Amino acid sequence: MYKVVLSLLFITLFFNFSYAQVESVSTEESIFQDIKPLSVIDLNQSEETSSVKLDRSQFALNLRSDHNIIARYDNFPKKVFTKQQFTIVLNATIATDSFDEILTTFEGGNGYEIINPDSKWILNSKRTFQNKFIVKVKNENFVMPDIIVSLVQDMSIVEEYKIEKPEIKVSKVGQQIEHFSSVIAKELTLTSHITKQYDNNTLLTIIELEGIESNLKDFKLKNYQKQGIESLSGDFDREKLVYFIILPIHEETLTFSYYNTQSSKIEIISSPIVHSEEIVSTQTDLNPHNSNVLLYKRIGIGVLLFFCVVWLLFKRDKIALLVTVICALYLVYVYLPNRNFLLQKDTNVFILPTKSSSVFFKTDSDVYVEVLDSQKGYIKVLLPDDKIGWVNEEDISKN
What we know:
This protein is 17% helix and 40% strand. It has five helices and 25 strands. It has helices spanning 2-20, 27-30, 40-43, 292-315, 318-335, and strands at 60-61, 69-75, 79-81, 85-94, 101-107, 112-114, 122-125, 128-137, 146-153, 156-163, 169-171, 180-185, 187-197, 202-212, 227-234, 239-248, 253-260, 265-272, 340-343, 348-350, 359-362, 367-375, 378-382, 388-392, 396-398. The strands form seven sheets. Strands 2, 4, 6, 7 and 8 form a five-stranded antiparallel beta sheet that branches. A five-stranded antiparallel beta sheet has the order 24-23-22-19-25, with no helix packed on it. Strands 1-10-9-5 form a four-stranded mixed beta sheet, with no helix packed on it. The longest helix has 24 residues, at 292-315.
């Protein structure tokens, strides 16, 4: 009899260890390693139009009578869309060497942002210089600015040429399309797609996109509340985005679209959600109140305790008593409630316990949370509305 009970004890403890204490973060954590974090909250902050590092107001105006500079547009689009980023190419012919620097000033206009205002002029051929600027259309009231090209010498503007703004039409695209991602690009490619279970009701899916001449920072899907940028790298010519989305566990396909500037039409990208049997390892045990693992654990320990009591009644020795006491104490431990702590207002709750994790949401008031786990300076918490996430240890106050 004692051999049977000891075997059951070993199996039960092994089960509990395997399913309740897994803290290894191997392949899953590598998804998030070395990713520069961009908070979800940061995406909702208003953008301000960038300004050049050197402003015309910093220089004295000491114009010469000579006219040694002529500048013009070499290339610009005739039609653009809101949120689109596009390139303008400027050429300047300068018939003098008496200058130290070429200064570019954007004057007037409306609803635009110059992404690279400090772009330098490059000598293209003898006396001819070229510059490329990336312009972002911020809204439908977009109007291109006038561009003033100035020659600077000894901290004075000695010559300048004003390029009048071109007429560029602006319109909206994709507003009525449910799966439109707000991306306008020469080309957009889905290069990677990984999905793991996040909690009992949702999945965490990570996608990697590569865009050519795109506005990847504006990527957003309409049907999902929790989503955001994990990393954004590269430049306008070729940019790479790593993006997370929390979606319902029953979702089977991830579908989104973008506007292709080459084909002048909406392109659809669709990828099946391959739901791995694994969960994101840093989310092990998920919500313990809804977890089947916890239920199986309690049933297993209860059954084992029953056999131990029967064994004790028949054997009445020290080994039977010891095993019965251990099982009883462990069953009490399993039913003990988790610790409660106060989570202060405006605390960032992260998706994962990593430095590069994005902010999942932000608390709007002081709230008591249940502690589920701890790892590497982070605490896994369950909020009253059943949301689960990770917070820094410093953000936790004891009740």
